[in-house]
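User: quick one - fold this with adenosine-5'-diphosphate bound?
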Amino acid sequence: VDANIVPIDGKEPGEQNLIVLLYDITEIRRLEKVRTDFVTNASHELKTPVTALKGFSETLLDGAMEDKEVLKQFLEIMLAESSRLDFLVNDILELSKLEQKQVPMNMQEVNLSEAVLATFQLVKQTADEKEMELNLLEEDTLFITVDNSRLKQILANLINNAVVYTQESGKVTVTIRKENDQAVILVSDNGIGIPEDEQDRIFERFYRVDKARSRNSGGTGLGLSIVKYLVENLNGSITIKSKLGLGTTFIVRLPIQPR
Ligand code: ADP
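Assistant: Sure. Structure tokens for the protein plus adenosine-5'-diphosphate:
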């Protein structure tokens, strides 16, 4: 709490009054902390691929490049680290644009099932490699007014996570239903799940339940923060239900016809 004390003259001669102003700055402090944490984490995350790129290129120049096999192997690692850097920078820029509300929403009528099926195509290869099933359960046929590319970004993030954080032969099911004037999209998997005490935190920037696993799977740790921003910018909400070892369901609610 911040306080200001202002002395003022009272009605009677010689009488002094004090006005004490108390400001609740909890929220301001929290937002400041979110911001500084973000800069610290972003720098740290960016440093990892940069350090790798520097190290591998130095080693190559120090003579390792004479060996054709080593050269190829190192270049492949450097390419992967560059992609990582690229994803990170893109996600960081995306978040900062979203924060400044610089994202124009291009609203149009979209068939929700078609959007889900189109998103399945993006993860089909990974799902096939892991012999996973992708199912769409259309309880209601829904046309919603939404920014189509933003909707696909939300779906792609959630469905990709469901595939990544589920073991081989697992199953991902997207259910679509209408509840009052809202479209409800449930993205369910029977994968590794998320411990109860971490479920609130996974929407935080860079928060990961298992850092190593997430990095290896190409994740930046920013996907769910972006999803949450997008859903909220579309006047919707997102919640999670998960049981460790059993699976996870993300529940997205979007207005069918935003005002
Ligand atoms: P990442 O790029 O690491 O996947 P996200 O913001 O998309 O970042 O997700 C944050 C973390 O939440 C992940 O690192 C993972 O630990 C956890 N998570 C997200 N989706 C799932 C899921 N379907 N099942 C289990 N854990 C998940």
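One thing worth noting: Residues 157, 161-162, 165, 189, 191-194, 202, 207-210, 214, 219-224, 248 surround adenosine-5'-diphosphate (CB under 6 Å).
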